[in-house]
Prior knowledge:
295 residues, 14-stranded mixed beta sheet, disordered N terminus
Amino acid sequence: GIMLTIGQVPLAVSQPVTIPVKAIKGAIPMDGANPIWEGVPGVIIPLSGQTITTPMHPNISVKSVFVKAVSNGKDLGLRLDWSDQTKNDTAIGPQDFRDQVAIMFPVNTAGAPPFQCMGQSGGTVNIWRWNAEWQKDLGKDSAGIWDVDDQYPGIFWDYYFEEPAGGVTYPDRIGRSLGPFNSGIWSGNIMSDPTLRVSSVEDLNANGFSTLTTQAHQDVIGNGVWEPSGSLKGGGYTGPTWRVVVKRSLETGDANDTQFKAGASVPIAFAVWDGSNIERNGMKSLSTWFTLKLP
């Protein structure tokens, strides 16, 4: 392997590594502990701090992610394990940040891949980002998610303008003032409104820094479990560990999605955020491009 540095900070660059996609029969299990995953070869992907653009973050806590991949001829599934000492699954408090993991592919898989940090103009990337907070809130409506009054149980709800006589019930307890007081839900922001999410994974595109955009059509599903005792089998880590499975159809009708053809070699890259290390946005652990080899 080769270790390069920028400003004396090591970058996770090594000789080309291929992640083999194992052909299986039947449905891809979303439970990462399913025995099917035990027989799948895994690859340890090295990660380094993001030191390309501000805010730079060289002092990362997650140094690698262990990746397995399978396909049943219809869907592609990946299992990702990484060491994380704490479970961070809420960002309601201003001091709190979520644990997350992302997988990135170029939308156009022909030729050289685009810039490994969010793609570039003319080189759009498709990003699948799993979110621990979305996992926690999965299947819940606005009334069931972890919200400000859960984070701060002593909160006092004051009077809201335009509140109808007789009061209101949550999630509409602020009546027609929803817009001014919860602009995220009112505007249809998927980050605020859990009813807009199809899973704990967000399907995104980017073509450079500050261009990250949620897709209109969400095609990726996921499932994540944090194990505090380090008892997960076959993950390569002995302490507290996140294990996340993501799955998508090999081919979709969405031009914004990466399409996976039988026998193809597709560039793939990874990023991990440790919420307890105040990681968010560009402050993360990331990899260079590797190769995903489909059967």
